Amino acid sequence: MTALVDYGAGNLHSVHNALRVAGREAGAENVVVTDDPDTVRRADRIVLPGVGSFGACIGGLRALDGMVEALDERVRRDGVPFLGICVGMQLLATRGLEHGGTPGLGWIAGEVRLIEPTDRGVKVPHMGWNDVAVTGHPCIAGLVEDGEAYYLHSYAFHPAHGHDVAAMTDHGGGICAAVAHENILGVQFHPEKSQAYGLALLQRFLEWRT
Hints:
Layout: E1 2-5, H1 12-26, E2 31-34, H2 37-42, E3 45-48, H3 54-63, H4 67-77, E4 82-85, H5 87-90, E5 95-96, E6 102-103, E7 110-114, E8 126-134, E9 147-153, E10 155-159, E11 165-170, E12 174-181, E13 184-187, H6 195-207
Parallel strand pairs: 1-2, 1-3, 3-4, 4-13, 5-7
Antiparallel strand pairs: 5-6, 7-10, 8-9, 8-11, 11-12, 12-13
Pathway: Amino-acid biosynthesis; L-histidine biosynthesis; L-histidine from 5-phospho-alpha-D-ribose 1-diphosphate: step 5/9
EC number: 4.3.2.10, 3.5.1.2
Subunit structure: Heterodimer of HisH and HisF.
């Protein structure tokens, strides 16, 4: 069973549909949208979406009694495969700097900061199709591939350690497109909006054995 966490801050309908489509190919169609920590504790893999500001998203997650603890237990203690999408990836950081400093989950050391392109002609937010260039991270061999995906964000994850960067893109300078650590994967782009590339990624995630 795949738990898609509902904390009031995700594009749930589109992500749920994309996971179900990908699950047909992976033999993993049981995708449950849930705000229940006990359901998360029973999940074989977990997806954390996210749309909106860092502070509002982490606040919504923490407002679910016991959810952060359940995620920590199942992902960090038990090692089940985890996917964070967009702000769901950013929440893995130590803190986000949108509207001041807000602590994140702290699973991957780093900060989420406003995109500041070196080229003044480059607009923020970073919106539309752009490259995903993998770094050869050993945790995600065969999971994230080079290609093009759909992005929509104004803030970017800056991991403290380069070995946590799994893929990069360029938008007036380098931007972290994916992070990874053991059984944890986060992607800045939206797989559910990335057509064949995104569905293939979700299928590989649903087949991932850590």
